[in-house]
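Chain A, query sequence.
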Amino acid sequence: MRDLAPTIRNISLNEMKSLNFCMPAVVIGIERLKDGLIDVAPVIDKFTSTLGYTEYEPIYDVPIITPNTSTTSIQVPINQGDGVLLLFTQSDYSEFVQGLKDAHEPNTNSFLSLDNAVALIGFNPYQESVYNNNNYKNELDNTALNIVHNKNTENEVMMSFKSDGTMDLFCKKVNVSCKQADIKAETVNVDSSLIDAKNSLVKTNNDVEIKGKSVYTFMTTHTHAGVMSGSSNTAPPNPL
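Chain A, predicted structure.
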């Protein structure tokens, strides 16, 4: 009986190797990305006792796992060549991905099958680490919550939420479109060569200063010396 132990162990090991638990892969197709599905190619060959190591066939229409709920989602672009980690559910999930969320029997009795893969995006070689400053144009603060798009390009956009309560935004242009924008701050500092309000009416309950001069004081106290009564084209003095 003791002599059978190695044989039983080898048989069990080979059976275990035929199961799929998780594996790295790269994205090779994004034609159904709007449906949350991608095509992937596993990058580590499979082993069988008869053939040795052989490549996996591509796996098509793999659901993507990203942070989202029924009310909120974070969508990130997915491109060919991106790394993912494949996980394999123990049962056939085909009815679930079609929309059935109630308890139900699976369509097949498949177990840890390649057909039941899901993809966790963001599993990459260490050189592509999100914590590596060399992968960004702007300097990255690894102690902050950072959201970056167009990494390491002239169009890089970085939003950084710092541990001291500061939020930094680096980008080429900011577009804001809303019905009303309310800003409450003790001080608003603007360093710009031009502020163009288009045809908007600018109102303030307090004073406005231009080059350190009070507009309110100027408008309420200036006089036009030597101006006769009646219509006049005399320009007001320029206190600036």
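The longest strand covers residues 22-29. The mean pLDDT is 87.
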